[in-house]
Design goal:
This protein has 145 residues and is mostly helical. The protein contains five helices and no strands. It has a domain of 35 residues. The longest helix has 32 residues.
């Protein structure tokens, strides 16, 4: 048996294994960055108020606020609990619309969900507002001439 050949094969196998382990470590950090912690909305509101009142935020606080704004812009709450609450509220609303009676617990849950998220489900209980009226230019569309 040729020992130098076996020794060379062992070195190559060790190099390949090391590269695979390094790639695995890098992948785990990339996947961890894709699934960040849920946003604490009270903390984000506090940072927003502070910045709107002219206060200076630390770099970490500004990054957190930017992340919260991004999550909100995407329409997510970034929290499994909120998604489950919204899903249950939708189910109860559909049940109510179909004419089925709700239990007292279901009515209380639905009332709490409306107060928390609003009927639109996006967190504003006031609901959508109508756009302001447009100014007229006096010009007519071509199909009305």
């Amino acid at each position: 048996m040729n020992l130098p050949l076996l020794h060379d094969l062992g070195r190559r196998l060790l190099a390949v294994t090391s590269i695979c382990a390094l790639c695995g470590c890098l992948n785990s950090t990339v996947f961890a960055a894709d699934n960040p912690e849920p946003v604490n909305w009270d903390r984000a509101r506090e940072f927003l108020r502070k910045s709107q009142q002219g206060g200076q935020l630390s770099h970490e606080d500004q990054v957190y606020l930017d992340h919260a704004k991004e999550v909100r812009a995407k329409g997510g709450q970034n929290s499994a609990g909120n998604n489950l609450e919204m899903q249950r509220a939708r189910q109860l609303t559909e049940k109510q619309k179909s004419g089925q009676p709700l239990t007292d617990n279901e009515k209380a849950f639905l009332k709490q969900a409306y107060e928390k998220y609003g009927k639109s489900g996006k967190g504003d209980s006031a609901g959508p507002t109508a756009p302001p009226p447009r100014e007229t230019t006096g010009l007519l569309p071509l199909d009305q001439m």
